[in-house]
Amino acid sequence: MFYGKARLIRQRKLADGIFEMILDLPEIAQTAVPGQFVDLYTEDPSLLLPRPISICDTDPEKGTVRLIYAVVGKGTDHFSRLADGSMIRVSGPLGNGYPLEEADSPFVTEIYVVGGGLGVPPMLFLAKELYKRYPDKPIRIFNGFRSTPWIEADFEPYGEVFSASDDGASGFMGNVIDAMEYRQVMAKDMDHEGVLYSCGPVPMLKALQNWQTRYEMHSFFSLEARMGCGYGACAGCPVRLRVPGADGDGERLASVCKDGPVFNGEEVIFA
Amino acid sequence: MKPELKVDFAGVPLKNPLVTASGTYNPEASGQFYDPSILGAVTLKGVSAEAWQGNPTPRIAETYGGMLNSVGLQNPGAAEYLAHEIPYMEQFDTKVIVNLAGHSIEEYERVTEMLCGADRIDMFELNISCPNVKEGGMTFGTDARMAEQVVKAVKRITDKPLIVKLSPNVTDITEIARAAVAGGADALSLINTLLGMRIDIRRRQPILARSVGGFSGPAVKPVAVRMVWQVSHAVDVPVLGMGGVSTGEDVVEMIMAGATAVALGTVCLTDPQAPVRILGELEETLNRLGIRDVNEIRGCV
Ligand SMILES: Cc1cc2nc3c(=O)[nH]c(=O)nc-3n(C[C@H](O)[C@H](O)[C@H](O)COP(=O)(O)OP(=O)(O)OC[C@H]3O[C@@H](n4cnc5c(N)ncnc54)[C@H](O)[C@@H]3O)c2cc1C
Ligand SMILES: Cc1cc2nc3c(=O)[nH]c(=O)nc-3n(C[C@H](O)[C@H](O)[C@H](O)COP(=O)(O)O)c2cc1C
Ligand code: FES
C-alpha cells in the first residue's frame, strides 16, 4: 500500500468539466489491478475526507498512473486547479479490483466491458489487461456517454468498441443497454457463456442486472459509495448483498471500499 | 533523548499514551498503513451481542474541520469478534480495548458475558454515548441514574478494567461522570461525538440518511479539552481523552487537561498513518518543551 505525496506530472482538460491527471506513482503503477482506485487528499480543513478516483490506466515502466475525473463539487474543483508539478497526498491501490480470471473458462467465449459516464475510464485499464491475458477471446466494449465521448480511441487496440450517447452526438443514440440489445440482435450469437464487467451510474447497473438474467452471463459491477476513510476502517460505505439460501435469500453487508468496489452483479441489492 | 512515554491506565501498563478511538480502527484495514504495536492500545469498533445492521446510507458527511457520521454501530456481533477480530490481535504487542454496545441493560450484560472470557481483551469500554442508535446508546449516557445502573450491571459480570465512554451531549458532563464512577467505572473516556446535522441546499434535504449524526474531528477539540479538564477534576479515576486530536501538540494539550491516555479518531480516517506521525510529534513536542516524562504534565492545568 502506498501512502504519501505524489507529483502531478501533467493535467489536462478533456472536455467541459472532465480532467485527466498523470501522477508519478511507481508503487501504484506497478501493483494496481483494474477496478482498484486511489484516494486523493487535500490539505484544506474544509475538505478533510479523501476523494476516491478509479485508476484509468497505469504505465508500470514510466511509473505513472492516469486518472480521469469530473468536477462535481469542491474537492474535484480543487484538484482541477492544481498546476503541473504540484504534490498531492495519495493512498492506494485501494479496493479489490475485477476478477479477470472469471474469463478463464473455455466456455467463456465473449467478454463484455461496459462503462457509463465516469465509469468509462476504469474500463480502459480493464480492457487492456483482459486483452493481454486473453488475446484470442473477443472483447466487446460498450461505452455510454451523455454526449460527445471524451475517451474512445484508447480502447480500440483491445476490442470491438461500441459507443452510445444520449443525444446521438456520436455512435449509437441511446443508452449502452440499447446498444447492447442492438448488437445482440445483429449477432444472434448468445448461446455461449459470457462474462460482463461494468462500472457506471446505478440506473445503468440496475438495467444490466435485469438484462443479464436473460442471458447466460456472469457480471461484475464496480459500485460507488459515500466514503469516510476509503480503506475499511469506518463502516461508512456499506452495500447490501444477497446471500442465496435454501429458505429464501438472506442478506449481508460488505464495505464498498475494502470488500469492493467490485461485486458479483447478481448479488448486489440496489437501494 | 527520548522522553518517557509509559503510562499506567487503570492498572493496565501502556507503552505510550496513544490509543485508537473506537470506530476508526479496524485491525486488518488499519494494518495496511501502520503496525498497531507502536501504540499503547487499540480500541475495537463497538460490538453488540448480536450483529447490528447500522443505519441507511449516506452515513458520512463532511464539514469544516471535521465530519458527521451516522454509522449506527454496524457490527458483526460478539461471536464473530471471538472467532476473528480478537484472535487476529494475538500477533500484535499492544493492549486491546473492546467497545461494548447495547440497547438495554440486558443487551450490555449479554455482550459482556460473551466476551469477558477472552484473554486477549485487556479492557472494556462501555459505550453509553452513541448518538446514532435510537434506544440505548446515548439514553444511558445522558441520564445519571441509568448510567450508574448499567455500569453496575456490567461490573458484576467482568473483572476486566471497565472504561465508561461519556457523551458530550449533556448539560453537565461531570454529573454523568460521577454516576459512572459510583457504578464502579475504573476509568472514563470522552468525548464521544457531538450531535450534528448538515443540509444539502440544492436538494433541501439532510445529507445523512438518518438526518442527524455524530460530529467529530479537529473542530471539536476545544469542547473535548474543556470536558476532559472538567471531568478529570471531578473524579478520581483516570481519563482517556479524545475529540479532534490530530497532532502531537494536541496530545500534550489533552494530557495537560487531565487525560492519562489519548485516543485518535477521525484523524485516522483523514490521514491513515496518523498514529505514526503523531507519536513522532509527541516525542518531539515533549523534547522541545523540556518534558522528560509525560506523567509530569498530567492535569497540570
Ligand atoms: C470507488 C470509487 C471510484 C470513483 N472513481 C471516479 C472516477 O474515476 N472519476 C470520477 O470523476 N469520479 C469517480 N468517483 C466519484 C468521486 O469520488 C466523486 O465525484 C468525488 O468524491 C466528489 O468530490 P467533490 O468534493 O468534488 O464533491 P462534493 O459533493 O463536494 O463532495 C462531498 C463529499 O461527498 C463525496 N462524494 C460526492 N460525490 C460522490 C460520489 N459520486 N461517489 C462517492 N463519493 C462522493 C465526496 O468524496 C466528499 O466526501 C468514484 C467514486 C468511488 C466511490
Ligand atoms: C466513523 C466513526 C465511528 C465511530 N464509532 C464509534 C463506536 O463504535 N463506539 C464509540 O464509542 N465511539 C465511536 N465513535 C466516536 C469516536 O470513538 C470518538 O469518540 C469521536 O469521534 C471523537 O474523537 P475524534 O474527534 O478524534 O474522532 C466513532 C466515530 C467515528 C468518526
Ligand atoms: S469508507 Fe471507511 S469503511 Fe469504507
Features:
heterodimer, A: 271 residues, alpha/beta, Elongation Factor Tu (Ef-tu), domain 3, Rossmann fold, 3 domains, seven-stranded antiparallel β-sheet, 38% strand, globular, B: 301 residues, TIM Barrel, eight-stranded parallel β-sheet, four-stranded antiparallel β-sheet, 21% strand, binds flavin mononucleotide, binds FE2/S2 (inorganic) cluster
Question: What do you see in this structure?
Answer:
- The complex is a heterodimer of chains A (271) and B (301).
- With 271 residues, chain A is α/β, with parallel strands linked by helices.
- Chain A has 3 domains: 2-94, Beta Barrel (Elongation Factor Tu (Ef-tu), domain 3), CATH 2.40.30.10; 100-222, Rossmann fold (3-Layer(aba) Sandwich), CATH 3.40.50.80; 225-271, no CATH class.
- Chain A contains 5 helices and 17 strands.
- Chain A has a 7-stranded antiparallel beta sheet with strand order 4-3-7-1-2-6-5. A 7-stranded mixed beta sheet of chain A has the order 11-10-9-8-12-13-16, sandwiched between helices.
- In chain A, β5 (57-59) and β6 form a beta hairpin.
- The longest helix of chain A has 13 residues, at 121-133.
- Chain A is globular and about 50 Å long.
- The two termini of chain A are 32 Å apart.
- The relative contact order of chain A is 0.14.
- Chain B has 301 residues and is α/β, with parallel strands linked by helices.
- Chain B has a single domain, classed as Aldolase class I (TIM Barrel, Alpha-Beta Barrel).
- Chain B has helices at residues 27-31, 78-88, 105-115, 138-141, 144-157, 173-183, 221-234, 248-257, 266-270, 274-288, and strands spanning 7-9, 12-14, 18-20, 41-47, 60-63, 66-69, 95-100, 123-127, 162-165, 187-190, 194-197, 199-200, 205-206, 212-216, 239-241, 261-264.
- In chain B, the strands form 4 sheets. An 8-stranded parallel beta sheet of chain B has the order 3-16-15-10-9-8-7-4.
- In chain B, β15, α8 (248-257) and β16 (261-264) form a beta-alpha-beta unit.
- In chain B, α7 runs parallel beside α8.
- Chain B is globular.
- The A-B interface holds A 1, 3, 41, 45-50, 91, 225-229, 231-238, 253, 258, 271 and B 23-26, 28-30, 32-33, 45, 53-54, 56-67, 69, 71, 74-75, 217-218, 266, 268-273.
- The structure holds flavin-adenine dinucleotide, flavin mononucleotide (FMN) and FE2/S2 (inorganic) cluster (FES).
